[in-house]
Amino acid sequence: MSLIFGQLVIGPPGSGKTTYCNEMSKFLKSLGRKVAIINIDPANENMEYTPEVDISELIKHEEVMEHFKLGPNGALVYCMEFLEINVNWLVTKILNLKDYYLIFDCPGQVELYTHHKSISKIAEKLTENLVRLCSVHLVDSHHCSDPGKYLSSLVLCTTVMLQLGLPHVNVMTKFDEMKKFSNCLAFNIDFYTEVLDLKYLLEHLDEDPFTAKYKKLNTALVSIIEDYSLVSFIPLDVFNKTLLLRVKNAIDKANGYIFGGNEPRDIQTLLACAVGAVSETEKTSAMDAYL
């Protein structure tokens, strides 16, 4: 049985998951890949694409809310647990897409990735059936404008990476929007994307009357992040092909597509030249890449 490659697109609500899935799908199709988007977010009502597989065929979020008298979050957890129990339904659908590259549009509730097990068990079952996944965690670049929000994002990314146990790529989305508040940032862009020396972040947290109250907690969180040293971000504006290519290349390395995929290498090379994303461009700073 041949391998199937794909990416599990996760991130908090508003981080741009559905837009990313749509634009990345179109970008990969321009490379000659056959791409299928798999929607496993039962509350996704504003899809910009037509999914090849949709969890609503199995269970409907609104019906769960009505039948069990649950709120939106409780109903979503129920739906994920139901999908976990009936994961063979998903596996069967996926195996019928053996010639496709898969993009999974996932729910945005962070508890599903920090301490709930359904998503990780679903991913584990797919891996057992030769689906090679990479988790792609989207974080809104606006969080850089607030030291507390940025620290929270780092903690979330670290927790999710450890919880899911998949090859992982962190992406800082809406990079085009960063132009609007870049002059308000405490540090340059590379500090946030490369997650540089966080002792400077602590200094800014101590200057804020609200976060200063949690000095010991902030110090402990920064220590955890630096001890694991797992988090860095690739900046992305989904309408910028140079940045899309950088994200695509990182994911291809993470899930192994670069070694076992079917995409002709000459197409990749031609596209890289067309958008100016040759190796020297890859070495430029995040600021140079877009701003």
Structural class: alpha/beta
Number of distinct helices: 16
Extract low-pLDDT stretches: 276-283
Instruction: State the separation between the terminal residues, measured CA to CA.
Output: 45 Å
Jot down its keywords.
13% strand; alpha/beta; 291 residues
Gist of the model:
The chain is of the alpha/beta class and 291 residues long.
Question: Can you describe this structure?
Answer:
The protein is α/β, with parallel strands linked by helices. The protein is 51% helix and 13% strand. Strands 3-2-4-1-5-6-7 form a 7-stranded parallel β-sheet, with helices on both faces. Strand 5, helix 7 and strand 6 (168-173) form a beta-alpha-beta unit. 39% of the residues are buried.
Layout of strands and helices, then pairs:
Elements: E1 4-10, H1 17-30, E2 35-39, E3 53-54, H2 61-68, H3 72-85, H4 87-95, E4 101-105, H5 111-114, H6 118-128, E5 131-140, H7 147-164, E6 168-173, H8 178-181, H9 189-194, H10 199-207, H11 215-228, E7 234-235, H12 241-255, H13 257-260, H14 265-274, H15 279-282, H16 286-290
Parallel strand pairs: 1-4, 1-5, 2-3, 2-4, 5-6, 6-7
Helix pairs in contact: 2-3, 3-4, 3-6, 7-11, 10-11
